[in-house]
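User: Sequence recovery, please. Input:
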């Protein structure tokens, strides 16, 4: 084969390799772009929209009263812990103003604690729990004061909080701290869902 033929054959093979590499690159790049855009397309196509500012709530509803929570559990004063957490959550919001009675409110938030359970997650060698989980289940309602129209409700809202139990002397203290954190986290999550319309 002549040097010219070898040169043409070499160039042709090199060109084919480059073309194949470019096609593979663009095929992979195209798939990568589609994979990156797919979540956005799905979210845009979804019927749900997050509105964390509570755009779906009537703008005339400004003054809020957080009513006393009822307690169906055997845990004393737990209703006050959760009510305080929800009051704090409304207080840091710029959307609403807290008032001290139902009569002054445009809407009322109320809750009922249906259950509070403690379950072991892991054990020490002595069969004493090394870690426990608190689980609270609640009935939450946000309604207009005058018309009693339900703005948002969740009849089976639940939250959990884990805590370590290094020894029996600190068990009760750690449980109480976990209960406070559980109430705060639950209030924050419920408020976000309420303001988003979920």
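Assistant: Recovered sequence (198 residues):
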């Amino acid at each position: 084969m002549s040097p010219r033929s070898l040169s043409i054959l070499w160039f042709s093979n090199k060109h084919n390799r480059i073309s194949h590499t470019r096609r593979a690159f663009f095929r992979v790049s195209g798939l990568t772009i589609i994979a990156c855009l797919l979540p956005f397309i799905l979210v845009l196509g979804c019927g749900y929209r997050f509105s964390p500012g509570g755009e779906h709530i009537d703008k005339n509803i400004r003054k809020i009263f957080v009513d006393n929570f009822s307690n169906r559990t055997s845990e004393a004063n737990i209703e006050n812990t959760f009510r305080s957490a929800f009051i704090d959550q409304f207080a840091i919001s710029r959307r609403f103003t807290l008032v001290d009675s139902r009569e002054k409110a445009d809407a009322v938030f109320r809750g009922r604690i249906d259950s509070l359970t403690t379950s072991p997650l892991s054990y020490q060698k002595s069969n004493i729990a090394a870690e426990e989980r608190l689980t609270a289940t609640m009935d939450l309602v946000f309604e207009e004061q005058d018309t009693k129209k339900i703005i948002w409700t969740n009849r089976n809202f639940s939250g959990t909080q884990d805590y370590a139990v290094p020894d029996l002397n600190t068990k009760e203290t750690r449980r109480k701290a976990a209960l406070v954190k559980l109430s705060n986290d639950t209030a924050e999550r419920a408020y976000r869902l309420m303001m988003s319309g979920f």
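The helical segments are 3-45, 78-91, 168-196.
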